[in-house]
Design a protein that fits this description.
The protein is α+β, with helices and mostly antiparallel strands and 150 residues long. The chain has a single domain, classed as Winged helix-like DNA-binding domain superfamily/Winged helix DNA-binding domain (Arc Repressor Mutant, subunit A). It is 39% helix and 16% strand. It has a three-stranded antiparallel sheet with strand order 1-3-2. α2 packs across α3 (44-54) and α3 packs across α4. It is globular.
Length: 150
């Protein structure tokens, strides 16, 4: 059993990832990653707002979206769709379990290798006619137990 912690790439790791993909570490890309490290899971609007309030980097939402999409295509980030039909980007690219808060449309990472192993070993015995299972994506859908103001 691999027990890996869910961790976002540090700024140094991020610069190395950009270099590996022959991308320049522009101020805009670094600002996007800094925002993603703070937010974890966010839409382009949320990242744009965060950059606007936390730094002096000027960037349009369209550029933020382009950077996020490019990084997701390169598997530096991953994508998640929320139930209010917003594209969220996840600063962690590796597969992990999520808890989705349906009241606030937000995602949280869940560390549970045991659950993942349980599902994996169960599915080893299952066959789905005409399909090959390529990936397992576990998302728990939840609602806050106490009313929270979003
Ligand atoms: Zn996540």
């Amino acid at each position: 059993m691999i027990n890996q912690t869910i961790k976002a790439p540090s700024i140094e790791d991020f610069k190395a990832l950009l270099k590996r993909h022959e991308l320049k570490a522009t101020r805009q890309r670094l600002a996007v990653h800094e925002a993603m490290m703070a937010l974890g899971h966010a839409s382009a609007d949320m990242v744009g707002d965060h950059i606007g309030s936390a730094s002096h980097v000027r960037i349009t939402t369209a550029s933020v979206y382009n950077i996020l999409s490019q990084l997701a295509d390169l598997k530096v980030y991953s994508r998640r769709m929320s139930s209010n039909n917003k594209m969220y980007f996840d600063v962690v690219a590796e597969r992990h379990i999520h808890l989705y808060d349906r009241d606030n449309n937000s995602f949280r990472d869940v560390q549970d290798e045991e659950l993942m192993d349980l599902v994996r070993s169960h599915l080893k015995k299952r066959r789905f006619k005409g399909f090959t299972v390529e990936d397992i994506d576990i998302q728990l859908v939840a609602r806050p137990t106490k009313k929270t103001r979003s």
